[in-house]
């Protein structure tokens, strides 16, 4: 079962994908955020624990998460918000 943190982060990534689509943004970017949301939602371990144990670079090991999305996740975990 996914943690509340993972569900919140996955929800924010999904929300970003929807906004990119609605604003006529790059469809590949929207798809990337959706894939990352799916990857985060599928985790069985809390994101914060993963970062605590393995560091922020571990975020890029999550399916669908690259450098930019990892930075967004870091910001969400650290501040509870995302400036995007």
Walk me through the structure:
By secondary structure, the protein is mainly α. It contains four helices and no strands. The termini are far apart.
- Name the overall outline: globular
Low-confidence stretches: none
Distance between the termini: 28 Å
Structural class: mainly alpha
- Whole-number radius of gyration? 12 Å
Number of strand elements: 0
The sequence of SSEs as H and E is HHHH
Number of helices: 4
Mean pLDDT: 91
Tell me the fraction of residues in β-strands, as a range. under 5%
**Helical amount:** 55-70%
Largest sheet: none
SSE arrangement:
Layout: H1 4-22, H2 27-41, H3 47-54, H4 67-79
Helix pairs in contact: 1-2
């Amino acid at each position: 079962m996914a943690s509340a943190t993972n569900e919140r982060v996955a929800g924010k990534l999904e929300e970003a994908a929807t906004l990119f689509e609605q604003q006529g943004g790059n469809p590949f970017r929207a798809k990337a955020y959706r894939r990352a949301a799916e990857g985060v939602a599928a985790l069985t371990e809390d994101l914060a624990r993963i970062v605590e144990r393995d560091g922020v670079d571990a975020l890029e090991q999550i399916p669908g998460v690259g450098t930019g999305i990892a930075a967004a996740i870091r910001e969400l975990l650290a501040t509870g918000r995302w400036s995007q």
